[in-house]
From TrEMBL:
It comes from the Bacteria. GO terms for biological process: thiamine biosynthetic process; thiamine diphosphate biosynthetic process. Pathway: Cofactor biosynthesis; thiamine diphosphate biosynthesis. It catalyses: 5-amino-1-(5-phospho-beta-D-ribosyl)imidazole + S-adenosyl-L-methionine = 4-amino-2-methyl-5-(phosphooxymethyl)pyrimidine + CO + 5'-deoxyadenosine + formate + L-methionine + 3 H(+). Its cofactor is [4Fe-4S] cluster. Transmembrane segments: none annotated. This is Phosphomethylpyrimidine synthase. NCBIfam families: PRK09284.1, PRK13352.1, thiC. Binds 1 [4Fe-4S] cluster per subunit. The cluster is coordinated with 3 cysteines and an exchangeable S-adenosyl-L-methionine. Belongs to the ThiC family. InterPro entries: ThiC (IPR037509), ThiC/Bza_core_dom (IPR038521), ThiC/BzaA/B (IPR002817).
Length: 478
């Protein structure tokens, strides 16, 4: 039994219209952000993004019009309280947090706790990557509760409803995309760029095809001896996405899953196809961002960012990491944040976080915290390196608070105030130490900032005496 034969999650009144039928309704449907931008219209969503980014609304419109910025904002989610945000090189570098259940663990309450943690700490988007049971209820709860855009990988839900991946039909895949679009998903990762001919290019890889969605599509193609249906039905998928203004997140099925496989023929063959699909989606009125590699050594990151910009006509680049070494399971939020900062510096528009549990297990709430904080640091470092106006304001404010021993202000300006306060209070918990001119690292005698302040006061006093012509000051110079 296929997805198209009445599975529980398919709406009873699911729309089976053809692409031609949908196109005939063009005059009655809501235009997408990119279509309005091309007509010179500054939408309320563009105005909102401009305010958040401290940019001129016209700049936001022009960036959306040319496809260099996306505003993932499903018309359904907008009605539920979505706060629009922009992803693009002219905006702040964004981060995404992945949550979702598996066949082994997790439930709605746990996923909502992860969502709250991620949003509270500053995640700009969240992806629900649920692969276990109750996918509909979990996704709907996440969309309803989230003020930030929500992304999914539709094939994860599709595959749960069949016994074998080869049982999926082309219509099944379109149906699940339309189902999720109708339920408010703002952007979707669809692995349309992996072609049948590219599979052979992975034969000598150390880690093969590490993308879950990519490997499933490769398995389907091998079983049916046919081309990727997400590629052959791409125009039909565009029509569904456009109807709800769902942003494409073109999945990198052949991203390298190890340093050994970085920047190989398979990766770049798919990237070229993703560029072609980007332009096709733009032509059909869809917003697009392109996903990027997962494991890349530091010396290849700039080249990868530049190559994507060329191949994909500067569509926003959304990268996983990249991880710059493979030797640190349990610490991959660190190995990947190093690569993420470099990727953001060289042009990535959004960074997909990696948690300490990467490669080891499903992340829990604390893993989400660690991943988000690591990536907020990476994204902010990228904004500093790109000299984005205003990016340094918070750094300077915190530095001034640090120098003046304003501990409460230091905590408030921290990315994670709770952790900053806890670490300070582990050794000096009393309220009196919140105004102390030292911390437990140096103590009162060895604090360089206190010593520096004493030296400044002494220098100012000496300068004042010189200006007054005091003999003691004059004698001090001799």
């Amino acid at each position: 039994m296929s997805l198209g034969q009445g599975f529980f999650w398919i709406d009873a009144a699911i729309d089976r219209r053809t692409a031609t039928d949908r196109l005939s309704e063009e005059n009655t449907r809501t235009m997408t952000q990119i279509e309005k931008a091309r007509q010179g219209i500054v939408t309320p969503e563009m105005e909102y993004v401009a305010g958040r980014e401290n940019l001129e609304p016209e700049l936001v419109r022009s960036e959306v019009a040319r496809g260099r910025m996306v505003i993932p904002a499903n018309i359904v989610h907008l009605k539920q309280g979505l706060q629009p945000m922009g992803i693009g090189i002219k905006a702040k570098c964004k981060i995404n947090a992945n949550i979702g259940n598996s066949a082994v663990t997790s439930d709605i309450d746990n996923e909502l706790a992860k969502l709250k943690m991620a949003v509270d700490l500053g995640a700009d988007t969240v992806m629900d990557l649920s692969t276990g049971g109750n996918i509909n209820a979990i996704r709907d709860a996440i969309v309803a509760a989230s003020p930030v855009p929500i992304g999914t990988v539709p094939i994860y839900q599709a595959i749960q409803q069949v016994k074998h991946v080869e049982d999926l039909t082309e219509q099944d895949l379109l149906d699940v995309v339309e189902h999720q679009a109708k339920h408010g998903v703002d952007y979707m990762t669809l692995h349309a760029g992996i072609r049948r001919e590219y599979i052979a290019l992975t034969a000598n890889r150390v880690t093969g095809i590490v993308s879950r969605g990519g490997s499933l599509m490769a398995q389907w193609m091998m079983a049916h001896k046919k081309e990727n249906p997400l590629f052959t039905r791409f125009d039909d998928l565009c029509d569904i996405m456009r109807q709800y203004d769902v942003t494409w997140s073109l999945g990198d099925s052949l991203r390298p899953g190890s340093i050994a496989d970085a920047s190989d023929a398979a990766q770049f063959a798919e990237l070229k196809t993703l560029g072609e699909l980007t332009r096709r989606a733009w032509a059909r009125g869809c917003q697009v961002m392109v996903e990027g590699p997962g494991h890349i050594p530091m010396d290849q990151i700039a080249m990868n960012m530049e190559k994507q910009a060329i191949e994909c006509s500067e569509a926003p680049f959304y990268v996983l990491g990249p991880l710059v070494t493979d030797i640190a399971p349990g610490y991959d939020h660190i190995t990947s944040a190093i690569g993420a900062a470099l990727a953001g510096w060289h042009g990535a528009s959004m960074l997909c976080y990696v948690t300490p549990k990467e490669h080891l297990g499903l992340p829990e709430v604390e893993d989400v915290r660690q991943g988000v904080i690591a990536y907020k640091i990476a994204a902010h470092a990228a904004d500093l390196a790109r000299h984005r106006p205003g990016a340094r304001d918070r750094d300077d404010a915190l530095s001034r608070a640090r120098y003046s021993f304003d501990w409460e202000q230091q905590f408030a300006l921290s990315l994670d105030p709770e952790t900053a306060r806890r670490m300070h209070d582990e050794t000096l918990p009393q309220d009196a130490f919140k105004t102390a001119a030292f911390c437990s690292m140096c103590g009162p005698k060895f604090c360089s900032m206190r010593i520096t302040e004493d030296l400044r006061k002494h220098a100012l006093e000496a300068a004042s005496l010189v200006q007054l012509g005091e003999p003691e000051a004059a004698g001090a110079r001799n």
